[in-house]
Design goal:
Blueprint: H1 12-32, E1 54-55, E2 60-63, H2 66-77, E3 83-86, H3 89-107, H4 114-128, H5 133-141, E4 146-150, E5 155-159, H6 166-172, H7 184-189, E6 200-202, H8 204-216, E7 221-225, E8 230-232, H9 240-256, H10 259-287, H11 290-293, H12 296-319, H13 331-339, H14 342-357, H15 363-380, H16 387-412, H17 421-434, H18 437-448, H19 453-459, H20 465-473, H21 475-494, H22 499-508, H23 535-555, H24 560-568, H25 576-585, H26 606-621, H27 629-645, H28 656-673, H29 685-698
Parallel strand pairs: 3-4
Antiparallel strand pairs: 1-8, 2-7, 3-6, 4-5
Length: about 700
């Protein structure tokens, strides 16, 4: 079956598939949403309390702020003295090893009195303690002032400056006032590093216990609020003290609720909220744009938009990376506007913004700003055909977002100095990221099979390979295609169809004629090869220009939407010249009409219907003997009325009013093309005679 045949209604399998994809999208959006419980009250330091009077319903402590607690913890940690266990056997083992090795050192020229000096240094180091290198580095980094050295029987506190690391222990050998007696070069020959071994081992358990004891001495509360006590009233400014009380109240409220139940309630709430928003989206498409639900590529694009942006905003909120204002949300309505329509673009933008707002703490400013930005983006980019249009849209959207957010700030802040300037920086970055919509649009075309106006404009360039080939091989067909494109575009502009689409489709609708150009009258020059063929063979060649055109379209990778114009520009009509000639030649023979019928299908869209009318009208107008207003009008009416009678437009959404408008456009354009003039009136004989008598009397 031809892939351009009539659309079928969704069957049960398609409906089940779309439902499953929708449910998967809902679960995916909810999965990435932050799970932190959200308070019923939202407040900021230095701003008025927006709710009614708040009274404490239970006793609760006033917790100190995290900054205050951090300072107190840092202060108390200066008293922290980690525990190290001293291994006393290490000292004797290393001194014994040194004495044994010193016998060989004396033979190599080291004086005997060096032995006592080195033993004394070793004992001092081991008695003070040598710490492992990594432990010593941690002590320095944490600014530890002293450590606790313990054995089985006792514990002593030793300042960190008296404890040795491996490096400082080695340097200690060379710290002597009698440098003349103890030569540095000779000390180095003793390989003293081999006798430096850590004898202080960090005891993590004892150290952690001491740390807990120190931290437990800190009080995390700075007071109490009693049940029934007023916390704040409407309009009062949230001071630092009040802020701490409010934060403590909300914290205690959360702790009094079962955390597992709270998380379950939160999850159920998110699922219901997201599901209801998706249901609103489904209702819109069911009521107004059911055709999009029937197209798999449209469903996938819409669900991709409605999933990607909420997931991005949820990740930013959960990970606390950047503000959500940095995400170019207006990309979604731009893509949907370019590939679908303005109303759907705005509805989907509103759906996306509502889904993102579920994850936010203060969604009002976000929702308002993004909705305004989306409306401006849709209005400023009604037709995308040049890169400069996207640059202009990005600039307009950025300026609008900045001005609108500034207006919201002015309503909430009395001082300009208190404005959150970071948001404005994010909005500017948002505008820069919006420029990436152009390359992403090309990716969407490839992934989902859409065709943008930019691609259509590029295809309509007469210098591309296929158009240049047509102009060289079939110049008559090329001129015919240009004329049809102009006629169809005029009609499309009048009846609110896609003008650029129908223009490009008209330019390519007859490319199949380039395979056998001489068999078509517009390319002939006195010689007609059909004179040597049978009527059936001639009809076959004429009909084949449709299938030949589809083959060329596949070869040159033309979009599916252009192939639709090639397949439908004759619909299921007949090659009437050869069909009627055959019936006249063989009046008694039953004609196989399929031999003279185009494969079709009939037009499926308004644009395809426009092309069918324009193609037939332009081709037939060339056969007129006399180009008068009456002859052109009769021709247009006859051709289009015949197409209506044949049911050519039954399967496309074109109205009788649209067809009537198309007729008027065709008539006006053809009169202009063929320079028709009105017929001047002639005087009747009686009037001429009277005029002559008047002249004679005058003489």
């Amino acid at each position: 079956m031809n892939k351009f045949n009539k659309k079928k209604n969704l069957n049960a399998r398609d409906i089940f598939y779309r439902i499953c994809v929708g449910i998967a999208a809902i679960l995916l959006v909810v999965y990435f949403m932050p799970r932190e419980g959200r308070s019923a009250y939202q407040f900021d330091l230095g701003r008025p309390w927006r709710y009614s009077q708040l009274i404490a319903t239970f006793d609760f402590p006033i917790y100190k702020s995290e900054e205050v607690i951090k300072k107190e913890q840092d202060s108390v940690m200066h008293l922290f003295e980690p525990y190290f266990e001293i291994k006393q056997s290490v000292e004797e083992e290393q001194i014994a090893s040194f004495r044994k090795d010193f016998v060989q050192m004396e033979k190599s020229g080291i004086p005997s009195y060096y032995r006592g000096y080195i033993e004394q240094k070793l004992r001092t180091m081991y008695q003070n303690g040598i710490v492992q290198p990594e432990d010593y580095n941690h002590l320095i980094e944490d600014s530890i002032r002293a450590i606790r050295i313990f054995t089985a029987n006792q514990s002593v506190i030793r300042p960190i400056k008296e404890v040795f690391s491996h490096k400082s222990a080695y340097k200690f050998f060379f710290e002597t006032e009698d440098t003349a007696r103890y030569n540095r070069m000779k000390l180095q020959k003793c390989n003293l590093n081999r006798y430096i071994v850590s004898n202080l081992l960090f005891d993590q358990k004892k150290s952690e216990e001491q740390k807990k004891d120190l931290l437990s001495s800190i009080s995390y509360a700075s007071g109490m609020v009693m049940s029934g006590q007023k916390i704040i009233d409407r309009g009062e400014i949230v001071t630092q003290e009040t802020y701490n009380i409010l934060a403590s109240y909300l914290k205690e409220s959360q702790q009094r609720i079962d955390s597992s139940k709270q998380e379950a309630y939160l999850l159920v709430g998110q699922i219901l909220c997201v599901a209801l928003i998706f249901l609103c989206m489904l209702l819109y498409f069911s009521l107004f744009r059911r055709d999009y639900l029937e197209k798999g590529k449209s469903v996938l694009l819409l669900l991709t938009m409605v999933v990607v942006f909420p997931i991005l905003s949820s990740i930013l909120v959960s990970e606390n990376l950047f503000s959500v204002y940095i995400i170019p949300f207006t990309m979604a309505p731009i893509f949907i506007r370019v590939f679908m329509d303005s109303r759907t673009a705005f509805v989907m933008h509103a759906i996306i913004i509502l889904l993102c707002a579920v994850s936010l703490k203060y969604p009002y400013e976000f929702v308002a700003t993004q909705l305004v930005a989306g409306m401006v983006a849709i209005y400023s980019l009604r037709e995308l055909s040049q890169r400069s249009q996207l640059l202009r849209t990005a600039l307009i959207v950025t300026i609008t977002s900045l001005v609108f957010y500034f207006s919201l700030d002015l309503m909430h802040e009395k001082e300009v100095n208190n404005l959150e300037y970071n948001i404005y920086i994010y909005l500017i970055i948002n505008g820069i990221l919006l420029l990436f919509a152009y390359p992403l649009m090309f990716l969407i075309e490839k992934l989902f099979g859409f065709t943008s106006n930019v691609t259509l404009v590029e295809l309509s360039n007469i210098n591309n390979d296929l158009m240049r080939r047509m102009s060289e091989v079939a110049p008559g067909t090329f001129q015919h295609s240009m004329q049809v494109a102009n006629l169809a575009t005029e009609v499309a502009n009048k009846i609110d169809a896609k003008a650029q689409l129908v223009r490009t489709g008209a330019m390519y609708h007859d490319i199949g004629k380039t395979c056998n150009p001489a068999y078509f009258t517009e390319n002939q020059n006195g010689v007609n090869p059909h004179d040597q063929l049978s009527l059936i063979e001639s009809a076959r060649i004429i009909i084949n220009h449709v299938s030949d055109g589809l083959k060329l379209a596949d070869k040159y990778n033309l979009p599916e939407v252009i192939k639709g114009f090639i397949a439908t520009h004759h619909g299921k009509g007949k090659t009437k010249y050869f069909y009627i000639s055959y019936k006249n030649k063989f009046p008694d023979e039953e004609v196989d009409e399929s031999l003279f019928t185009y494969p079709g299908p009939n037009p499926q869209t308004k644009e395809q219907a426009i092309l069918m009318m324009a193609d037939a009208v332009e081709a037939s107008s060339r056969s007129l003997k006399d180009y008068t207003e009456e002859s052109i009008s009769n021709l247009v009416d006859a051709i289009i009325d015949a197409q209506i009678m044949d049911g050519a437009f039954t399967n496309c959404p074109i109205t009788f009013q649209d067809i009537s408008t198309a007729k008027d456009v065709f008539k006006e354009k053809l009169k202009t093309i063929y320079h028709t003039r009105i017929s001047y009136p002639e005087l009747n004989k009686k009037e001429k005679t009277n005029e002559s008598n008047d002249k004679e009397t005058a003489h």
